[in-house]
Amino acid sequence: MAELDFSKYEDLQACIEESRISITKDYIKSPEVLMVGDSTFGTLGNFSVSIGKAKSKKTFNVSAIVAAALSNGSVLHYNAKFPEDKRFVLYIDTEQGQLHCQKVLNRIIRLMGHSLDSDPENLLKLALRRYSPEERITIIEQAIEAIPNLGLVIIDGVRDLLYDINSANQATEISTKLMRWTYDKQIHLHTILHQNKSDENARGHIGTELNNKAESVLQIEVDKEDKSISVVESLLSRGKDFEPFAFCINDEILPELVEDYTPTKKKAGRPTKAPFDPYKDITEDVHRKSLTVAFENGSIGKYNDFVKALRRGYQSQGVKLGQNRAVAVAQFVCNKRMVVKDNKVYEFK
User: Fold this and answer.
1) Residue 13: pLDDT over 60
2) Residues 6+ positions from 344 with CB-CB distance below 8 Å
3) Per-residue confidence at 339, pLDDT binned at 50, 70, 90?
4) How far is CA 141 from CA 44, 98, 204, 245, 285, in A?
5) Beta carbons of 89 and 70 less than 8 angstroms apart
6) Is the torsion defined by CA of 59, 63, 69, 73 positive or negative?
7) Is 50 exceeded by the pLDDT of residue 1?
8) Which residues are bridge partners to 127 per DSSP?
9) Cβ pair 301, 344 in contact under 8 A
């Protein structure tokens, strides 16, 4: 290959020298640190995701992952093998108050088999519910930079790092930060997302973005035949998928492995398509660009003209709306106060 001269562009030259891939260079395989059996779902320098619907026991499941990491051993079916200089865990909770977070910490310590007299020396658990998304990001970023021997970061509630889960720009910013944090500090990061109520997709544009960038995605769902059991399966993985396993909550309010669990076979064929939802199916950016076109001639008087303008505006952004979908969008943008009816005319705000 011809020699390239980027000396006039110092920043570009530095990026190229750091990022260039060569056939003659030796690259180190990312250390495998989190496994289920002989299947790896977590390596240093990458991030993974847990998704599940409400009440599927997602936090119980991640408690087992954290307990395994802190003890560098096995809990439920999770095995942890962190290097000696990567044994510290940072656990961020963005959703719950301090009392609930303490209950989760209590659970983690008991899963490790330790007494409740003191906090684990290699764990920092932070409850960031009271902070804004920008403040949460700053706290996480600075903690990751400051903590020595950091190996694992948990973010329980990554959606709370955004204002709008359907914003493509915000979703890209957050996924880029996760990739940068994990690469620069050579840590593993595991985060938790809710699933849509109507299907198995992670909620919002942030869900799509993280699913595409994560090295693995775990799904936690309530067993369809026994509601007391939660099932963990590998939904997406760059490596070998693990066999689904299940846990229940025992009398001590701890997750306990269900022995000899046989997963329910899923129905053949395509899953049922979810009904159209303007909030989930169209990003905020597309909504606003479409409305700009729809209202390019100013306010609109009649409702029928308003719906026709919406169909034209959304068509300009590549979104084809039939009559029923256009009516649903009209209701959505009015409910969101993007469009208001004032003095019997519709106006785009």
Assistant:
1) yes
2) 301
3) very high
4) 17, 21, 23, 34, 27
5) yes
6) negative
7) no
8) 93
9) yes
Domains of the chain, each with CATH number or no CATH = 32-257 (3.40.50.300), 281-348 (1.10.10)
Specify the residue for token string 């909030």: 279
Mean pLDDT along residues 81-88: 95
What's the token pair of residue 22?
Answer: 């060569």
The pTM for the full model equals 0.71
Q: What one-letter code names the amino acid at 276? A: F
- Reference 177, options 142, 146, 125, 217; nearest CA is 142
pLDDT, one tens digit per residue, over 243-287 is 899 999 999 999 999 887 877 665 555 556 678 888 888 998 899
| One-letter amino acid of 168 | A
Q: Summarize pLDDT for 176-193 with one digit per residue, the tens.
A: 999 999 999 999 999 998
Cβ atoms 41, 48 nearer than 8 A: yes
Tell me how far apart the alpha carbons of residues 184 and 144 are, in angstroms, rounded to a whole number.
10
